[in-house]
Amino acid sequence: MALGGSKITDKPQTASRAGLRLALWLLLLAAALVFGIKTLKHRDVVETDILAMLPHLQQDALTSRALDSLESRLANESYLVLTGKDKAATIEAAKGMMAELASSPAFVSVRSGSELDPKEIYRLYFPARFNLLTESQRSLLENGKLDVLIKQAKIALYSAFGFANSELISEDPLLLFPALMQSFGKGHRLGEEGGILLGNSDGQTAAIIMAKGKDSVFSPKAQEAQISAINAAFTKVNLGKQLSLLKAGALFHALEATQSAKAEVSLIGSLSLAGVVVLVLLSFRSLMPLLMASLTLASAMVSASLFTILIFGKLHLLTLVFGTSLIGIAIDYSFHFYAERSGRDESASQTLSRILPALTLALATSVLAYLALGFTPFPGMQQVAAFCGGGLIGAYLTLYLAYPMLADSRIQAASAAITLASRFLTPFEAAGSKALVIGSLTVLLVCIPGLGQLDSRDDIRSLQQGSAALMAEEANVRTLLSGGVDNQFLLVRAESMQTLLARLEALAPVLAKAEKDQLLQSHVNFADYLPSQARQMADHNLQQQIYGHELGEILARLGLEPELEPDLRAKYQAGAQTPIEADAFFDTRLGANLKPLLLEPTANEANHPESTAREWGAMVLLGGIQNLPALNQAVATLPGVTLVDKVGDISKLMGEYRHTTLWLLVLALLIAFGVFALRHPWKLAAAMVAVPALAALLSLSLLGLLGSPLTLFHALALLLVFGIGVDYSLFFAKDENREHGHRVMLAVLLSASSTTLAFGLLALSNTPAIHYFGLTLALGIGFTLLLSPLIHTFKRKLK
């Protein structure tokens, strides 16, 4: 009677505890939903900037400022090219499109045409004409070839198409100033008409417009606003015309990436969910397991998203694409629960208490695997780690708190599914010790050819590649813009503004030769327009050959009045006191456009004169780079000049992380062996870590045979193969009897099937980084599924 009474008393107590757990779970879920709604309501939490996913480089202060300045200058700039057969109609359409875009709140500036305002340039440079020479003029005077300049002036004076007039001749008899103004446009292949930049694209007129977005192009809202404004403006100006629109800039890459990521999240998530539904229904033939599995997945996705937003403030779209694989992992808890519960006359709490130790250890190993990802200095993987780790914790809490009450209904035996699992496990049970050893050696031998063909690739361009159509369109625009602007640039540093200008001037002929040698197509150096004080003084001294004692003879040879001599000589002597100052230059429209290339010492540095960081800097933009190593070699010997290649630096860093991650995997295997050896015989512990180790080797071997390069994403995926593989080993190592082993096999089979499905779908992604990650995980989990039953056999042989 006492025993019976005890049972009766226990049931209300168990029900009460289950009710309290469910209440706690509902409270946590409600709090999470309230936090999520408030967060989504007050700020944009979706991030699409691929740069936000990249590792942070350790840069000195000046280089960091240069990179920030360049990114802010280029990030929101869009290039729009209207092309048409009718030149006048194309120019008219370009003006109309500029007006439409300028009236849109999505853009802060819309421009075309040259930054060179002739009147403004004249006011700045003409008073300083005695201090300014072109490279050609300077070279002639340095080599004593004044006669050549005189001959050139005669030709210009008496040419029917000459631009000289009496007023200009009286101020500049050798007409040096017009040649200087013409030199400012050197290297520009674009024309200008009606304030519109014009080029030629396949025989058609190309009108070029530059539009700067108000907000970051990596914001989905900004993308929608800007692309809508562009499309509406083009549609309006193209009525009745046959114009085409070419586009280039970060906006269009970001938009394509956003659309691709959204489509992949939807497709991969839907297919993964459909796969889970099919697996649950086929295995347990009941709606209750499906409802509980759906509840577990929903809780996992909510907790994953909010956990990530709580830590990082934003959730990257690529994290969501990676995170869809969470469906295949979080569902494991439901699979293990129902595989143990099906056909048994016991409460949900009893089933849970039996499997909870193994599930807790499995959660710990999986979270540790994700934690290893989180410790890599790679923001993208840190987000993925937080997302998946937070999701697994959410799924575990749902199992622990909600299942005792909600999943307490009896489930009929999944006899067909267990029979299938038994058939899968039978060959392993029949294997002997020698067969296991021979099998392991065979696996290692099979791996050797593939591992020998494995090659590495660490270029960050593998993160995201635009479509062929987008890349071709951008290439056309870059050709029109003489190469545009590349991500690499030259950083020139000095201790003063004048030293900086001198170093930029020393760099100019090197870059001119590089363009001639076709190492690059174009460059932007503000010292081409702002000579140093030393250069201006040197040019003034060179012009002594003109305005010195031979001035009278020069005027006579040109047929000019001798009365001009005193006034010209006086103006020349006064010119030494009127050099072009930096402040005056940067106050012009041209100077204001080039001012972002100058990096002045910050206020902080000014307060600490002893600081070595008190430096002046300047960026020289490069376009159409054809041979980066040769260009780097050409500028390497110049003082204070360095080539900044963020793409190359990050790629190098990713290679280092790849090596570190693979060594971290080896260390994780050794630590796992030590932990397992504390609770199991050392042979069994060795077998438990051998499963993920062999799965990793087989995956790498097959990748080599498939010709897939080894990247950081493959290495990071192998860390997760380790975490999941160890889970499977733990469950098989815990089985108490043959029947339990078959139930574990069912759970592992379902788990591996759903996980492989999820990651296999990731392998279909158009984004190479996601493809590599998903492919490696799908292969790793597949091999783990084939190898993990060996633990069941090995443990039985040890008994």
From TrEMBL:
Transmembrane spans: 265-284, 291-312, 318-339, 351-372, 384-403, 660-678, 685-706, 712-732, 744-764, 770-791
Q: Cellular location of this protein?
A: Cell membrane
Any one cellular-component term (Gene Ontology)? plasma membrane
Record's signal peptide: none
Principal place of residence: membrane
Q: Which intervals hold domain SSD?
A: 271-388
Q: Does the keyword Manganese apply?
A: no
Going by the UniProt record, its keywords in alphabetical order are: Cell membrane, Membrane, Transmembrane, Transmembrane helix
Bilayer topology annotation: Multi-pass membrane protein
Q: Which domain of life is it from?
A: Bacteria
**Protein name from the UniProt record:** SSD domain-containing protein
Q: Which organism is this protein's natural source? A: Shewanella amazonensis (strain ATCC BAA-1098 / SB2B)
Q: What is the lineage of its organism?
A: Bacteria, Pseudomonadati, Pseudomonadota, Gammaproteobacteria, Alteromonadales
